[in-house]
Amino acid sequence: MNNPYLPLPMKLVKNFTETEDKLIHTFTLEFQSEEDEKSFAYTPGQFAELCVFGKGEAPFGIASSPTEKGQLKFSVAKVGVVSTALHLMEEGATVGVRGPLGNSFPMEDLKGKNLVVIGGGFAFTTLRALSTYILHPDNRADFGDLTVIYGARNPGLLLYKEELAEWEGRSDINLVQTIDRPADGWDGRVGFIPAVVEEVAPSAENTVAIICGPPVMIKFTMPVLEKLGFKPEQTIMSLENRMKCGIGMCGRCNVGSQYVCKDGPVFTRSQLLELPNEY
Amino acid sequence: MIITKQDIPNFLDSLKNNYQVFAPVKQDNYTMFKAITSGSDAILDYSNSKIPPKGILFPQTEELFSYKVDKQGAHLEEKIDSEQKVIFGIRPCDAKSIALLDNVFNNDKYEDPYYLTRRENTVLVGIGCNQPQSTCFCTSVEGGPFDTTNLDLLLVDIGDKYVVEVLTDKGKKVLTSAACSDASEADKQAAAKTKESATVVSKVNLDGLKQKLDSNFYDEIWDSISEKCIGCAACTYSCPTCHCFDIVDEAKDCDGCRVRNWDSCMFPEFTIHGSGHNPRPSGKERFRNRVMHKFKYFIDVNNATACVGCGRCIQNCPVNLDIREVLADIQGSEARSVS
Description:
The structure holds two protein chains of two kinds.
Chain A lengths: L7 E10 L6 E7 L3 H6 L7 E6 L3 E6 L9 E7 L3 H7 L6 E8 L5 H4 L3 E7 L4 H11 L10 E7 L8 H8 L5 E6 L9 E2 L2 H8 L6 E6 L2 H13 L7 E4 L15 E2 L2 E2 L6 E3 H5 L6
Parallel strand pairs in A: 7-8, 7-11, 8-9, 9-10, 11-12
Antiparallel strand pairs in A: 1-2, 1-6, 2-5, 3-4, 3-6, 12-15, 13-14
Chain B lengths: L1 E3 L3 H8 L4 E8 L2 E6 L25 E10 L2 E6 L6 E6 L1 H14 L7 H8 L1 E6 L25 E5 L3 E6 L2 H7 L9 H13 L11 H7 L5 H5 L8 H4 L7 E8 L2 E8 L20 H20 L9 H5 L6 H10 L7
Parallel strand pairs in B: 2-6, 6-7, 7-8
Antiparallel strand pairs in B: 1-9, 2-3, 4-5, 4-11, 8-9, 10-11
Helix pairs in contact in B: 6-9
């Protein structure tokens, strides 16, 4: 019997300070063998339990795309015991990864559709995985137009700045970056995500919106999407709840009868409207 | 088959050659299931144990694996308990709870090797309940004092001996260690009479409850019904179907082990996010989740009520919150939304 509790040892090859406030680091981990990598076949939208031996484990969305071979990326905010220990880890150290866990973005269903990816702040991790996957030459032709609307409080808090700059120069993605308030050295767009979505006004026809961000951003963006004609089944979200096992047994991440870890974390808005608001 | 009460200690002693044997014993004035060292430690005149025997398959605390990290990397060693076990004297309600736990630890996507390995290697020898307690309501939740669900053997107490019902091959194998004789017609009749005369007085009405819970999440009833609860979690720790757990590391530097411990949905820390946000912030939401989990969510997923009517939550609650009254109040409540 396969043991879903055993982590895969991986090597931390990069511990990168992602944001100006230094609270978010991106960790690049390397598989230690081809076999290990094969055992970890994943799809954008999935998460994994990242473990620091001696401290414990915690769940994080996978920020890398399966098209990025040999490694995994996680962007982690310094919040508790495990994330703090991770932030302090030296490159070259061994960490554990358990997964991939959860469902994923419905990549097969998204084929042939236009995609509007909307992210706020630090919730851009699995959206990076999704966008990177779609932009890969092997996959790009499978999907229609790709619009990415991404905002943060200030420019220093945007994740993946180098990649955003690269995406800006591409013609097969419409990247819209925004910050909440004017800042020195920022000549881009200023405004909250809901207002920016309204301005950009993507068409809902043959389109799916995928939205991850803080609850307040989601709350105010939903009516905008509705106004633009996005139906609940055309709107995809990813939930977070406190987790331990990640495999639907320990009982804490349920929303109604659904476990976020096993049945989610990705749900359509129409699915969420059927569930109680315990997230 | 017949086995006399006098022969039970010998039976258990001979089982000990091939199995780890758990049986009800008296300790600190409580009845509990423990691994016995001698067949005579088992007590036969008990109502039920204070804590359910689920811990034999799903221990209150258990090491999942140990690890050591050095320059070469991480070395893991999993700890799967595959010892053969017999639980002697388990009550039908608790045996049924194990059938429910099977759904949890073998869900639509994952298998838990710790629980399932123990489960596969464990024989359940039940003793029916001649005198159900005042807090028992097994007959209201598809069980009964002589229900055979999940049992390998059922023993029916007819005085100085038991009539043994062999229910599975596993049970049959265990019985080869016992000095059994064939049951006479009179014994069989005595067993039938015993079964008939055992009455479970207390009842809960589940008719329409699920439909009610399907639509009353935002109703006012949850505000009042949970007021008395102090969130101590005695109900969940003594519940044979509760399965919530925590996972923690116990280590000195990078040399240690990962452990899982029983946890409870009644604690605020159970669901709190790293951000401080808590989706079930007060006793109301936690109490509602507990009731919903047992009488709605578990049915949605596994088509079974996650309560076996053992009554332990009623006996152990320090503020006398009685699940029978809670369910009756829900049944009698008007749909009044507070949202």
